[in-house]
Structure formats: C-alpha cells, structure tokens
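TODO from last week: model tRNA-(Ms[2]io[6]A)-hydroxylase.
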Amino acid sequence: MLGLKLATDPRWVNIVESNIEEILTDHAWCEQKAASNAISIVTYNSEIEELVTEMLEIAREELEHFQMVHNIIKQRGLTLGRERKDHYVNELFKFMKKDGSRRDALCDRLLFSAMIEARSCERFKVLSENIKDEELAKFYRDLMISEAGHYTTFLGFARKYQDNIDIDKRWKEWIEYEGSIITNYGKKETVHG
C-alpha cells in the first residue's frame, strides 16, 4: 500500500531494544513535530476550510500521541529527553519544491507530509511485529493504523488541491528520492534514524 522502495530491516528493532528510552524520546518529539506541521499547513492555507478542519484533527491526534508516548515514558520511570534533530525529515525537506504557485507549494508540502507518515507507518509496523515488549508491540500496532490514515489524508488532499501538477508523477519522484536517502538510516534507535 505504501509503495516505499526499501523496507526497514527488522534487525533495526534490535538497535531500538538496546535503548528504549531513546526511541521513546525521539518518538515523542516526532509526534510534536507532526502536530506542528499540521498547524503550519493551516497557517499558510487558512482559506481552505476542509483542509483546516482535517489538519486541526490531525494536529490534535498527533498531540494525543505525544501525550501517550510521554505517559509510557513516565510509567517506565524514564525521562523525556531534549528534542532531537530528525536528519531524515531534514533531507526530505530539501526535496520540497520552493517555487511555483501557493497551491503548488501546498501540494508538495502535503506530499512531504505523506512521505513522513508512510515511513513512520512502516517503521511502526516493523516495531509492532518484532519488538519483544508486548505493551510496545500493541502500542505501535495501534499507531501504525493512525499513521496510515494520516498518510492517505495527506495524499488525498494533494490530489484534490493540485492545479496543474501531475500528483502521481510527483509522488513517484518523492518515492524515488526517499528510497535514495533511506539507505543512510535504520542504524540508530530513533523512529527514522
């Protein structure tokens, strides 16, 4: 369904299991950034009522996920560490087109968002199927479903609001680009790392 070029090696979960506090901290901040991204889309596209309504819903869900991860951190006697840079997301951001109309920029921002959600969904699936911690396996299975919904929402809005962009062609470009950079990741105990 996601069409990603490269699947995450399940051995990545061994790295994650070596430092659960790190993956949880990184994950919490990923959720916060996802909420901020949805709010940014609202800020720059406030005239599109349907989009605003849906992005506010996604922002709320992402903040709930942040809270859920924070609750797990607290329950386990761990500490929410400082925000981490997400080099994967920063590399994706560089691929976003910065020229064209406002509508073109919106569509590429939506595709950027869909790409992040697709990879997060895939990573959560790998975690849910391979992590030994049963509580976290269920948690990541549930979040995988939510991320898949966000992915389809972003992709659907990109298709709906495009003016003169071939969204399917541009999405394939995103898939190819992501496939070229993801080979550098999967070596750290972070969601995208």
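Done. The chain has one domain: 10-184.
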